[in-house]
Amino acid sequence: MRMRPTLSWTPTEDLPPGTTDLAPVADALSTGGVLVLSGAGISTESGIPDYRGEGGSLSRHTPMTYQDFTGGAQARRRYWARSHLGWRTFGRALPNAGHRAVAAFGRHGLLSGVITQNVDGLHQAAGSEGVVELHGSLDRVVCLSCGTFSPRRELARRLEEANAGFEPVAAGINPDGDADLTDEQVGDFRVVSCTVCGGILKPDVVFFGETVPPQRVEHCRELVREAASLLVLGSSLTVMSGLRFVRQAAQAGKPVLIVNRDATRGDRHALARVALPLGAALTAVAGRLGVPVDGRAAA
């Protein structure tokens, strides 16, 4: 049986309340040098659910852990069946107003960088450049034996060929690209191996229970050191991978702003938490600053 990773956090009553005042966010952006840290909440308006918000996937879904994935062939069969089906929807998701606003802020020189905890590639699709993918990306696959990287679309083609007629109906899609399928629906789904060495293939993402590569963490820490302020978008900051950068910024005396409808684990470190829908909030901020937001995709 898969064990549920520790992902919960219960807000305490002493946390500062959220606000609907966008002025602190607009003021920080007008100064420039803002480092964005985004989470699953920025992609919900693209049809990808978050983990912990209203209707979040954790209420019905246990994310794959690194220990489960590497521990047995059946776990990998279940993962790839669910992920393969989820990719058909996940891979077609489009950037929303929040992603487009972040890209617009970047084009106008207001940002010092973008760190995302998401694995969906939607910041880049909206036109953001130099995005640091803290937890990797689902559009790449890596062999655990020889380290060869390959495009996800190539793996999708191979899985389609190996599993002709695999068309189960999923109960939902999750932020990690995993579709909700029963073991009966997974059935005898066929998993393919590395074309170079025959090793185990894994998506190039950081599973729960797996550590973010140290050099990537240090790069993010350097971005925090160089930034004038930190703007958190759509993250509950429940896990340490993102919270540590909030703590670092606060300890350095840098303003921390959060836009998230629900309370976050970083609220006590923030100048303000704006409790508004992200797309509308960031579009409104862009309007105040005279920054046009369009649907231009990355080249």
From TrEMBL:
NAD(+) binds at residues 39-59, 117-120, 234-236, 278. CDD domains: SIRT4 (cd01409). It is found in: Cytoplasm. The keyword Transferase applies. Its main location: cytoplasm. The active site is at H135 (proton acceptor). SUPFAM superfamilies: DHS-like NAD/FAD-binding domain. GO terms for molecular function: histone deacetylase activity, NAD-dependent; NAD+ binding; zinc ion binding. Residues 15-292 form the Deacetylase sirtuin-type domain. It is an enzyme of class 2 (transferase). It catalyses: N(6)-acetyl-L-lysyl-[protein] + NAD(+) + H2O = 2''-O-acetyl-ADP-D-ribose + nicotinamide + L-lysyl-[protein]. Its EC number is 2.3.1.286. Its cofactor is Zn(2+). InterPro entries: DHS-like_NAD/FAD-binding_dom, NAD-dep_sirtuin_deacylases, Sirtuin, Sirtuin_cat_small_dom_sf, Sirtuin_class_II, Ssirtuin_cat_dom. Keywords: Cytoplasm, Metal-binding, NAD, Transferase, Zinc. Residues 1-20 are annotated as: Disordered. Binds 1 zinc ion per subunit. One of its GO terms (cellular component) is cytoplasm. Belongs to the sirtuin family. Class II subfamily. NAD-dependent protein deacetylase which modulates the activities of several enzymes which are inactive in their acetylated form. This is NAD-dependent protein deacetylase. It comes from Streptomyces griseoloalbus.
